[in-house]
Amino acid sequence: MDEFVLIDKYFKPLSRGFGAALNLTDDAAIIKVPPGSELIITKDAVSEGLHFIGNENPALIARKLLRVNLSDLAAMGAKPLCYFLAVMLPANTPEAWIKGFVKGLSEDQKQFHIYLAGGDTISTHGIKSFSITALGTVIKGKALKRSGAKVGDIIYVSGTLGDSALGLLSLRAKRSNPELIQRYLLPQPRLALGQKLLGMANACMDISDGLVQDLGHICRASGIGATIYKDALPLSKPARKLIEKDKKLWDSVFSGGDDYELLFTVPKAKKYAIKKLSAALKLPLTKIGEITKGKDVKVLDRAGKTLEIKHKGFRHF
C-alpha cells in the first residue's frame, strides 16, 4: 500500500478532534500548553521478538505500545495530551494487520482521552517495530520525579507485582494462565493515581524493568537507600499459586518487569491519606518498605535476612 494512502486511510482519522495535529497534512504539529502547565514528554519503542512475540492480535500490540508510554506520563502525574507514532513495517504486511493495529489505537485513544498528532511510516526488510512519543501536561512545578525521596519515606506500589513476567513465561510455555497473560498483553497505566499523587508523593516512577532495579533508579536519583520486605510484596492469586509451586519464580516479582505499576514514596504523615486514596480509586496501594540512609536497595526476608538478588532487572545493553 502507498505510504500516503496508508496515512490518509488509517492514521489520519486518529487525529480527528485534535486541531494541533493539523489533520496530519503538515510536517509537524502546533502544540499549545495550557496556562500554568508544563509539558511532559516521553518516548518508548517496542520491537518484535523483544517486547512482543509477534503472533499477538495487532490491536493488543498497539494498545500495549500506547499504554507503556501512558504509564510514563502517569509516573510524573501528567494528564495525557497527544502522541506521535513511528511505524516500521515489512513491506508485505497485510492490510488487515494494519487495520487491526489502528483499531487498537482507536480504542485506547477513546479510553485515555489522547490523540495522534503526527509521526512517520516506513517499510523495512526485517521485523515490526514501533515508537511513540507521548505528551502530557502537569501543573507547573508539580511534576513527580525520581529524585525527591527522603529518608523515612514509606515505599508503596500499586496493584500486584510479577504478573506480567509470569504471564510471558506462561505464553512461552503454552500454559493456560489467562489472568497473568492478560497482564502481560495489556498493562494498565495508573494515570488517575499519578495525578492524585501530585503534592503527596516525594518520588515516583513506573515499574518497567523490574522492582529492585527501578527502586535503585529512585535511590540513585535521590541519593538515598531503601529497604523492602519480601513478605510485603503484593501478589495476585494466580501469581502466588505459581510461586508456591516453584520458589524460583520469585525472580519474576523482584526483577521481571513489565508490571507498569507505580512505585512511589511518601512521608509517614501521609500514610492515612494514601489509605483513603486506595479506597477511593479501588486500587491496592501496598507499603513494601522504607527509604533509608545509604545507597543500596536491600530485600529482607521474614527473619530479617538480606536476600541476594542476582538479576535485578532488564537491561538492553
List the helices and strands and how they pair.
Layout: H1 3-11, E1 37-47, H2 58-75, E2 79-90, H3 95-112, E3 115-124, E4 129-139, E5 154-158, H4 163-172, H5 178-185, H6 191-196, E6 203-206, H7 211-222, E7 225-229, H8 237-245, H9 250-255, E8 262-266, H10 271-281, E9 285-292, E10 297-300
Parallel strand pairs: 2-3, 7-10
Antiparallel strand pairs: 1-4, 2-4, 5-8, 5-9, 6-8, 7-9
Helix pairs in contact: 2-3, 4-5
Please characterize this protein's 3D structure.
The protein is globular, with a radius of gyration of 20 Å. Strand 2 (79-90), helix 3 and strand 3 (115-124) form a beta-alpha-beta unit. The relative contact order is 0.16. The chain has helices at 3-11, 58-75, 95-112, 163-172, 178-185, 191-196, 211-222, 237-245, 250-255, 271-281, and strands at 37-47, 79-90, 115-124, 129-139, 154-158, 203-206, 225-229, 262-266, 285-292, 297-300. 34% of the residues lie in helices and 24% in strands. The chain has a six-stranded mixed β-sheet with strand order 6-8-5-9-7-10. It has a four-stranded mixed β-sheet with strand order 1-4-2-3. It has 317 residues and is an alpha+beta fold. The protein contains ten helices and ten strands. Helix 2 runs parallel beside helix 3 and helix 4 packs across helix 5. The two termini are 35 Å apart.
